[in-house]
Structures are given as structure tokens and as C-alpha cells.
User: Which sequence fits this backbone?
């Protein structure tokens, strides 16, 4: 090794030490690391962009359009797409663009609220059933098994059918949440069986920490990755359930609209006015597709063994 090489290495090491002393090295937190892994995946970024565009239209699309969803144009009944009605109108003269925007926002709201509430209940009860064990676990598992065989779709339809048009979507959220948490709770209960035997849980019990605090502060955070992923994917399931119920006339009721109710009205006149079915279907497919891509991206970002981990550089 020449003297010049030795001097260059010494200079580089000296500069590195000086940079470290000055605090030039960036320290990446856990959230930043997950974000880098997520945005490294092109499919996840595409899904996020699609979702943001859909959310933008759901929030501000009504201000862009010329017509309101509840303001029919009786001079344009079942009219095709035009400069006045961008996506056409239905048999009652309602603007399809305004209906899709309104329906997209309503379906998104129902899906997000239902998914968050479902996972919150499932996380709390699933960890509690496993944490306490004994007769609490036996009774809890019996309750979960009983709820799994209940015809939830039929009961939700009966609950929503008796509600009026104003509160129908609220009862739909209550019904979907009341029966949607059971399957997730069983999964979380199984994962908690190993966590409850960890040393930090035993230490917290020995120190007299309350059971509720142990569940919330120690057990649930260790299941955060699975809870986050299932919450995102749960939006897709909730939107699909809402769409199916509304399509059958058992969900969101007129004068309000959702993607399911728009699809229901479009299916009747599919041969004479295909745009009534095509455009709402595209919005529904884009919504479910984007959420699926985001869920897959989060799964890879939260998994340290996935190929999305890569090499993190400052």
C-alpha cells in the first residue's frame, strides 16, 4: 500500500469522525423505516395514488360537477355522456357523475368506520380472551364459536331494512361492526397465546400493573403490524358488504346513494343505458384494487424478511 493511499484513508476516516461528531448522520426511526420500505414498492405507490385520487373526488368532486346528486334534469332522461352530463344520467334524470361521487364518498366512509371499529373491538376482546385464560377464555371462545354460525348477512339486512333513509347507513355500520369482528378476534386470540408468556408480560403482572394496561400497552402494540394490515384490507371487505346489501336494496336508501345503490339502478337498464353500470363499476374496482395494493405494500413493509426491506441508507 502506497503512502498516498494511506493518507487518503486517514483523511476519509478523519472526515467521517468529524461528520459523526457534528451529528451529520441521520437516524431513521421505525416509522421512517416502514415508510421507506413502503414507498420502495411501485405497486403500493400506485395503489396509494389511486386511493388519493378517489378520496379527492369523493371530497371535492361535487364542487367540480355541474349537477347535484339530488337535482334531476327532467329534460335529459337516460341521456348518454355529454358536455352537460359528463357520465350521463339515469332514468330519473339524475346526473351519474354526481351520484358516483356521492356514492364513492358514502361507501368509503362506511368502509373506513366499519373497519376501524371492527379491528378495535377484535383487538381488545381477542387479546383479553387469551390474556385472562381459564373460564374467561372458555366462555369467550364459546361466544365466538356461536357468533360464527349466526346468519350475519340476514340479520344485518333485517336491521337496516327497518331503518329510515336518514339513519340507514348508520345502522348498516352498526350491523357490519357487530358481526365483523368475530373472525379477527379468533386470529388475534391465537397470536396472543404466545405473547402472554413473554417475560415483559410476567414482569408487568408481578409489578401489579392492571390487566387493561397490560393488554393496551404491551399486547396490542406487539400485534400492531397485523392489526394495521387487517384494518386496511378490512375496508375492502366492508365496502364490498355495503355494496352487496345496497345492491339488493337493503343498504343505503334513497334519496342518499352509495356505489351499491348506483349499481342497482344501473343493472336494471344495462342494455339500454350501459354507462349506468360501467362507470360505478370502474369506481368500485379502482377502490378495491387500490386498497389491496396498499395492504400488500404494508404487509411487505412491516415484514423484515420481505424483499421490500432492501438496504436503508441515510
Assistant:
Amino acid at each position: 500500500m502506497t503512502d498516498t493511499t494511506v493518507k487518503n484513508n486517514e483523511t476519509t476516516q478523519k472526515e467521517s469522525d468529524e461528520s459523526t461528531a457534528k451529528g451529520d448522520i441521520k437516524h431513521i426511526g421505525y416509522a421512517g423505516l416502514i415508510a421507506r420500505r413502503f414507498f420502495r414498492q411501485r405497486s403500493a405507490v400506485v395503489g396509494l395514488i389511486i386511493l388519493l385520487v378517489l378520496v379527492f373526488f369523493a371530497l371535492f368532486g361535487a364542487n367540480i360537477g355541474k349537477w347535484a346528486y339530488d337535482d334531476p334534469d327532467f329534460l335529459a332522461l337516460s341521456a348518454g355522456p355529454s358536455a352537460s352530463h359528463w357520465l350521463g344520467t339515469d332514468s330519473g334524470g339524475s346526473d351519474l357523475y354526481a351520484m358516483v361521487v356521492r356514492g364513492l364518498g358514502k361507501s368509503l366512509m362506511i368502509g373506513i368506520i366499519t373497519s376501524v371499529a371492527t379491528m378495535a373491538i377484535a383487538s381488545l376482546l381477542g387479546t383479553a380472551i387469551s390474556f385472562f385464560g381459564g373460564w374467561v377464555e372458555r366462555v369467550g371462545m364459546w361466544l365466538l364459536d356461536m357468533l360464527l354460525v349466526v346468519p350475519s348477512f340476514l340479520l344485518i339486512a333485517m336491521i337496516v331494512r327497518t331503518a329510515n333513509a336518514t339513519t340507514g347507513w348508520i345502522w348498516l355500520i352498526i350491523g357490519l361492526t357487530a358481526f365483523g369482528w368475530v373472525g379477527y378476534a379468533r386470529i388475534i386470540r391465537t397470536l396472543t397465546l404466545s405473547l402472554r408468556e413473554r417475560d415483559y408480560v410476567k414482569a408487568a403482572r408481578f409489578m401489579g400493573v392492571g390487566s387493561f394496561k397490560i393488554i393496551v400497552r404491551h399486547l396490542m402494540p406487539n400485534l400492531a403490524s397485523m392489526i394495521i394490515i387487517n384494518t386496511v384490507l378490512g375496508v375492502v371487505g366492508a365496502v364490498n358488504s355495503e355494496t352487496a346489501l345496497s345492491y339488493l336494496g337493503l343498504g343505503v336508501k334513497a334519496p342518499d346513494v352509495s356505489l351499491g345503490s348506483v349499481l342497482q339502478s344501473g343493472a336494471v337498464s344495462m342494455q339500454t343505458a350501459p354507462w349506468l353500470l360501467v362507470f360505478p363499476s370502474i369506481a368500485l374496482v379502482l377502490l378495491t384494487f387500490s386498497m389491496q395494493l396498499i395492504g400488500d405494500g404494508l404487509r411487505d413493509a412491516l415484514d423484515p424478511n420481505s424483499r421490500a426491506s432492501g438496504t436503508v441508507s441515510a
